[in-house]
Design brief:
Elements: E1 4-12, E2 18-27, E3 32-36, H1 43-51, E4 58-63, E5 66-67, E6 78-81, H2 93-103, H3 108-122, H4 137-149, E7 155-159, H5 167-184, E8 187-192, H6 195-201, E9 204-209, E10 212-217, H7 219-224, H8 229-234, E11 241-249, E12 253-257, E13 264-265, H9 271-275, E14 281-286, E15 291-292, E16 299-310, E17 314-321, E18 324-332, E19 342-347, E20 353-355
Parallel strand pairs: 3-8, 3-9, 6-7, 7-8
Antiparallel strand pairs: 1-2, 1-4, 4-5, 9-10, 11-12, 11-14, 12-13, 14-20, 15-19, 16-17, 16-19, 17-18
Helix pairs in contact: 2-3, 2-4, 3-4
Length: 366
């Protein structure tokens, strides 16, 4: 195992485009860190620079205390698992897993031990003599992971390894990967565009956009205390609702949406931070889960119901309110709401977020 450190790492391509803009990050020894963000945010480029598959334009990358900028990939003592399983079709599972060790000149007895240990860990013992064409997608992915495990590297690098699997298999394999890390405790850097995957797998998640790290923290902290509007909108399902408006002082501090005569009270916990923005433009952020099924003693919001999507014990309700046409609430399925009808929803304002204007507007309460 080893600590992996990025110090002001940049990647600029020959055409002048900057894929990664000065990332500084420390992945602790034994940590499972997830890089997450939309396509083109720089997460895969960052991983490929750690692996040595992309040159670093500026800054340094170190693995286990050794700067590896000029070290070839094969000498970095890392193992990478790609989105494409890249198994040799003419080789059995056993030979696929052993191939890299044979190239390194590892003794036959040691190869056999490592392959058997990895097969036992991944539940592949009955499949060792099959070829890739005889395996399911999930089994192929486990073989690819096994091929990485047998190398006993300082760090594992995963580049969207589950994206080729169907939804049910992704959930199962995700749990297997988490259990595997808990057993091996090997430093792991994992790239995905799936925020749910990031939340469930990572000890820490790093949210990236436009080549920059927007926030790096424990999954629950990123969800509860997003650093800016981008992070708030990217993390969470369904996505957070945003409404532009301003802060006013009436009987107390309130949020008033543009073009709306009503208001929502600012919770006491937010009053000091939000009060500094009195009279200024702000963006209110409300997660769908912040809407109560019934209006309670707190804030109430009159709405016009649009679409109701049952989800079993809950439902997603698209509605119009505060002059906005498409806001979403996640409510208990016990609530009876008819499309097109007027209704009143409770709003838990203690769960509200307030942001500066703009795509990357700062969270005023963090």
């Amino acid at each position: 195992m080893a600590q992996v450190t990025l110090n002001n790492v940049r990647k600029v391509y020959a055409n002048g485009s900057e894929a990664v803009k000065g990332s500084t990050l420390e992945i602790r020894d034994g940590e499972f860190l997830v890089l997450v963000g939309p396509s083109g945010c720089g997460k895969s480029t960052t991983l490929r620079m750690v692996a040595g598959l992309e040159d670093v334009s500026e800054g340094t990358i170190s693995i286990g205390g050794r700067i590896v900028n000029d070290v070839p990939p094969k000498d970095r003592d890392i193992a990478m698992v790609f989105q494409n399983y890249a198994l040799y079709p003419h080789m059995t599972v056993e030979k696929n897993m052993a191939f890299a060790l044979k190239l390194r000149g590892v003794a036959k007895g040691e190869i056999a031990r490592r392959v058997q240990d990895a097969a036992r860990t991944l539940g592949l013992e009955e499949l060792l003599h099959r070829k890739p064409k005889e395996l399911s997608g999930g089994q192929k992915q486990r073989v690819a992971v096994g091929r990485a495990i047998v190398r006993e590297p300082k760090a594992f690098l995963f580049d969207e390894p589950l994206s080729n699997l169907d939804a049910k298999l992704r959930v199962t394999t995700r749990a297997e990967l988490k259990a595997l890390h808990q057993r091996l405790k090997t430093t792991t850097i994992y790239v995905t565009h799936d925020q749910e995957e990031a939340m469930t797998l990572g000890d820490r998640i790093v949210v990236m956009s436009k080549g920059l790290i927007q926030q790096a923290d424990a999954p629950l902290k990123v969800y509860q205390r997003p650093a800016n509007r981008f992070v708030a909108g990217f993390i969470g399902t369904p996505p957070m609702n945003f409404v532009e408006g301003r802060i006013e002082r009436r009987s107390g501090l309130v949020f008033v949406a543009e073009g709306w005569e009503g208001s929502l009270p600012v919770a006491a916990a937010h009053a000091e931070a939000v009060g500094r923005a009195e009279g200024e433009a702000v963006v209110l952020g409300l997660r769908p889960q912040a809407f109560g099924g019934e209006p309670g003693a707190g804030a109430s919001l009159p709405v016009r119901v649009g679409i109701v999507e049952p989800l079993g014990d809950s439902m997603d309700v698209t509605f119009s309110a505060m002059g906005r046409e498409r806001l979403v609430a996640r409510l208990s399925a016990e609530r009876v709401l008819e499309p097109g009808a007027a209704a009143t929803l409770g709003v838990v304002m203690e769960r509200a977020h307030y942001f500066e204007p703009g795509e990357f507007g700062r969270n005023l309460c963090v």
